[in-house]
Amino acid sequence: MYLILLPILFPILAGFCLLAYRKDPGRKLLTITTGICLVITGALVVVALMGTKQGLTLFHLTKKLPIYFNIDKISVIFSLLTVIVFLCAGFFSFVYMKHEQKEKRYYGYYLMAFGVLNALCFAGNLITFYLFFELLTLSSFPLVLHTGSKEAVMAGLKYLFYSLCGAYASLFGIYFLYHNCETLTFTAGGVLQISPASREGSFFLLIAFVMILGFGVKAGMFPMHAWLPTAHPAAPAPASAVLSAVIVKAGVLALIRVIYFIFGTGFLQGSWVQTAWLTLTLVTIFMGSMLAYREPVLKKRLAYSTVSQLYYILFGLAVMNEEAFTGSLLHVLAHGFIKSTLFLTAGAIIYTTGKTRVDELRGIGKKMPFTMWCYTIVSLGLIGIPPTGGFVSKWYLAMGGLTGDIGIFRYLGAAVLLVSALLTAGYLLPLTIQGFFPGADYDDTACRKQEPARLMTIPILCLTILSVLVGLFPNIITNYLTDFVSTLL
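Request: output the structure for the sequence above.
Response:
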């Protein structure tokens, strides 16, 4: 029963010990120690997923508010994604962070964020989830401002301000739910026993919308998206990878828990809240893609892309049928593997060449062919080209939207997804085309291979393979989720 605590406490304590240790342990010892801690934490997560059969109440804040942990199929999806991305980005950083200062601080907060994310995945009720949701902001905030530059500090403060404002809006909703629900334990189908047609129901529809906006800040929902394209370029590349692939998905996980496990889809379907939510998701998808298409800086382009792609996931959640929800969970995995690969390849390019703008990378495919092939494969996945995971997840999302009872959004959703896919091709593939086919006037006689070290290329390769495997064997995931999804709806 207490196995569920180990992957939470171990990395948090390990990170705290690194931060508290005053002496310089030496770079080799620091990276070895951090690598061992990452591997042990990953193993502890797997042991907890396999060995935990019942929930654990740690203690009570009040009689009605226990700190409670439990593992369900949503926990499994998000925790496995967290482990894979943190391990790959962590080992990548052992080379990348050579040119950064204060590595001990970076790895300390990195480990702590890992443990907090595990707690978020395993949270069994809304108050436990909220506490670790706030802790995630505080533990990941130092990763954003790590370089200490003016740009990084302002980006970190912006991230902190937006995240805390969103969390406080959500806390407002939790207060009213606490007084009107018998329990805040996550329960498939929801726990709110109020009719949306009643006077109280109208008020709780407003509360639901406020919580969607509040938790949506972490996921970069328009118009609260501005922190995300500011924070990503300022953070070190491996931090950007976990920020984009995992940490922002805390907002996605929050909305799944609130909508499907607290309010229940029956309360929101057909309401103005669903209409407003669908509108915001489609606006964010299109806006993120358009801004990415116009952005010349590579990491910032990928950050705007994250804004867009996250709302593919939230569009599926807002449709509220089985196909769309399944597509959302598939896209959680596919996008996580793809976007972490893209940020790591961007980091490898910056580390090797020092160049950050797309127009400076002409001929990069001649110098870094392996890195650019991985970039190209996952880019095709983000566009939605088979047989990648991005194709399968977007197929489910499109089919779910077309068959959903959402009025005109059935057609608007399909149209926006198609336009966004074309824009995605427009902002990702030019780097591949210019990288491998720089033109007849490009002098490649002096080109020499500049691939980064294996500790950088192996994580990139592993994530690329995983992004394809999700597309080749999606039935493993969909069969695992089928019965569980039906109980939620």
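DSSP finds 20 helices and two strands in the chain.
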